[in-house]
Write a structure and sequence with these properties.
The protein contains three helices and 42 strands. With 714 residues, it is an all-beta fold. A hairpin with a 2-residue loop joins β37 and β38. The longest helix has 8 residues, at 82-89. It is globular. The relative contact order is 0.13.
């Protein structure tokens, strides 16, 4: 057990280290040279220029489904015109005031007259998807002059491996470049200046292609010398059933450590709850994601498997008097898969390491004290009630871990770290948002995105055999302000086997959106009716309805809260049940709407839009102004304690295929807060939901169309 925790995060250099999960990069014996010579048009505050870019590396001649494909060392050469170099060195516009295009700054050790940092946007294309390759930032240094008017900046780095999921061709292509040019200063003592440029290729270049064969091909040894193995998704399960409460004092909720106890203090537990204590239910949960390290500005994948005893303590409100609240508690042991990854140590040195996070007890704890993580779930006892509750539904986990590094290579040279290279214990606390009325709600055992907002990496010790390498690791990655995110799969209930695969938790699905960016989903027309079988039924109809989303075109996205957007309607009318039509002066949406993947294992998948709160001002008297209001959302019925004055956010749902969202289901109706007395839309009519007039024709068409795919092979 995020993101158990969009993005789930990064760590760096030798902290590949923190909660690792991934695959060992298998390198087939046959390799080929790949790369490209490109022309770029670059613009910044200092002007527009044409630059040259050469990329050189090697690739395996073939690959295998489920086995990572690792490129060789990537070498780049950026040809900068002398005119631009002169402006940078002179401190012209785009100098000190320009923001760098990357958080990875060049080394300050003996800098040349001109240096820089380059970030390439390299896409990986396979038969089933397109994704960002995650290439590192490249530190650049000026090459010796060659007599022409071009200054060449060169650099090298190691790209992360790619694990193909299907047979066919896998290729890398480059099209954009972020470039920071830095002048180190002049002989007159003036300080250095910097110029930030955004570069676009005149034509996107394919760097190389690898043929991917079926998974029955034998794996080859990895570059770090580990025995060959399959990807994380196929590794042996680490899950086990933890002892029940009271059996072994090492496995229990830790109420003694102040740091771990914080998870139960914020938010505070409401008073007048009924506590119960149970044996708990054994669960197994798998999570994958990334960790971001602030100091290095890079990312590595993580994979975690958690064994948990949950629902060992419960607290529940009163269904009549409140609060509308319940809480589950438990404990867990988290294990990480050792992970190799490559980053630029100190911003310029290719560093590859294998590391893992080892869960430990709190500092100063004894042999009989708990070594487990504390777990807490908070949710509404009755989701549809208006009884006072406390905040949004959420789940959290808190534990202590040591970061242990076992193998490392710096610029291709192996370092012997020994077997005691690790940090002191550090608190690892994350929380996952499970939703509210507006965003929709996720069941806690269906998986979530757990986020750690401020992860501190302590100093390393015990690193090295013949010399102390601990200061190098500490200087490279230790510090605060790091971020982690982990996406989890269904919680496997080990006893009955609910949500389990091969006796353990299934791999979490992650989602890819392509191409992303601003997209508008439009329905023409948009018609809600009391009775879809009768043309005489009361109707709320508009010439068009549009939902505008800003889609994140990337991999590793959660299905919950995939995008946030706004709604607008045009040309609306209200048709009463007696046939009279009234113009709608204005229709507004209260707040944002949220797009989520509701069902992903269907073909096609089903999407859900939540948060719909429409308010239509109707001209009843023909004077051109709104005389009354019809509110369309999700009305609530029941006792006075459960009555809603204005309803709760409604939702629509349906299959999504090739950029078209078809309507299959909705929870929309006339809310009690409506003030119109129009037959079919009066407050007395709010017990019956509205339906789409024609399900076959009720569709939202996305422009540009967005390809949304999912994957569990990480």
């Amino acid at each position: 057990m995020h993101r158990l925790f969009r993005s789930a995060a990064r760590i760096a250099a030798l902290t590949v280290v923190i909660v690792g999960g991934g695959t060992v990069a298998a390198v087939p014996p046959a390799i080929a040279d790949i790369g490209a010579d490109m022309r770029l048009v670059c613009s910044g505050e200092s002007g527009t220029y044409k630059l040259g870019l050469r990329i050189e590396t090697t690739a395996p001649s073939s690959g295998t489904v489920g086995q990572p494909i690792q490129l060789g060392t990537v070498k780049i050469d950026v040809g900068v015109p002398a005119e631009l170099v002169t402006k940078v060195q002179a401190g012209s516009p785009g100098g000190p005031s320009a923001s760098p295009v990357t958080s990875v700054m060049p080394s300050s050790i003996a800098p040349p007259a001109l240096s820089g940092v380059a970030e390439m946007q390299v896409a990986v294309r396979t038969p089933d998807r397109i994704q960002d390759s995650g290439w590192p930032a490249f530190a650049l240094a000026a090459a010796p002059p060659n007599g022409d008017a071009i200054v060449h900046l060169t650099g090298s780095g190691v790209a992360p491996p790619v694990t193909p999921n299907s047979v066919g061709e896998l290729s890398w292509s480059a099209g954009e470049l972020g470039l920071s040019l830095v002048s180190a200063g002049t002989t007159t003592g003036k300080g250095g200046t910097e110029s930030a440029l955004h570069c676009v290729a005149e034509k996107e270049a394919v760097l190389g292609t690898v043929r991917v064969g079926p998974a029955n091909e034998a794996p080859t040894p990895s570059s770090l010398g580990e025995p060959p193995r399959q990807s994380t998704a196929a590794q042996a399960n680490l899950c086990e059933s933890l002892p029940k409460p009271g059996v072994d004092p090492r496995y229990a909720i830790n109420h003694e450590d102040p740091e771990l106890e914080k998870i139960y203090k914020s938010p505070a537990v409401p008073t007048n709850l009924r506590p119960t204590f149970r044996e708990g239910v054994p669960y197994c949960i798998k999570g994958v994601g990334f960790i971001n390290t602030k100091k290095v500005g890079n990312a590595v994948p993580v994979a975690v498997e958690s064994s948990a005893q949950f629902v060992t303590e419960t607290y529940q409100g009163n269904p009549v008097l409140g609060p509308n609240y319940r809480e589950f508690r438990g404990y867990a042991v988290n294990r990480t898969y050792p992970t190799p990854a490559t980053v630029l140590g100190f911003g310029f040195m290719p560093t590859r390491a294998v590391a893992e996070a080892v869960q430990v007890g709190p500092p100063g704890s004894g042999e009989g004290d708990p070594i487990t993580a504390n777990l807490r779930l908070i949710q509404k006892l009755f989701p549809d009630h208006t009884l006072p509750g406390i905040g949004p539904d959420q789940i959290g986990a808190s534990s202590y871990v040591r970061v242990k590094a076992t193998k490392a290579q710096v610029n291709g040279v192996s370092l012997d770290l020994g077997n005691q290279c690790m940090t002191s214990p550090t608190a690892f606390t994350g929380k996952a948002f499970l939703g509210n009325w507006r965003t929709g709600m996720m069941a806690w055992d269906q998986g979530q995105t757990l986020v750690v907002n401020d992860l501190r990496i302590p100093s390393f010790s015990g690193c090295g055999v013949t010399e102390d390498l601990s200061p190098i690791l500490t200087a490279s990655v230790s510090g605060s302000g790091n971020y982690a995110g982990l996406e989890t799969g269904h919680w496997c209930s080990v006893g009955p086997g609910t949500n389990c695969e091969n006796g353990a938790g299934p791999q979490p699905p992650t989602f890819t959106v392509d191409p992303g960016g601003h997209t508008t989903a439009t329905a023409r027309p948009f018609v809600l009716t009391r009775d879809s079988s009768s043309p005489e039924a009361a109707q709320f109809k508009c010439e068009s309805a549009a939902m505008r989303f800003d889609m994140d075109g990337a991999h590793w996205q959660s299905r919950f809260g995939l995008a946030k957007g706004e709604v607008s309607l045009e040309g609306c009318k209200v048709k009463a049940s007696d046939g009279t039509e009234y113009p709608v002066v204005k229709t507004t949406q209260e707040g944002s709407v949220w797009l989520s993947v509701f069902l992903f294992q269907t073909d096609p998948m089903e999407l859900q839009v939540t948060g719909i709160m429409l308010d239509a001002g109707v001209d009843v008297d023909g004077n051109g102004t709104a005389d009354c209001s019809i509110k369309i959302n999700r009305p609530r019925q029941g006792s006075a304690l459960n009555a809603q004055l204005s309803g709760t956010p409604g939702q629509i749902q349906g299959p999504y295929d090739n950029g078209v969202l078809s309507m299959k289901y909705n929870q929309l109706g006339v809310a009690p807060g409506s003030t119109c007395a129009i037959p079919g839309f009066a407050r007395a009519d709010n017990r019956e939901l509205l339906n789409f007039a024609d399900l076959e024709e009720s569709k939202f068409v996305f422009s540009p169309a967005q390809r949304i795919t999912w994957d569990t092979k990480h």
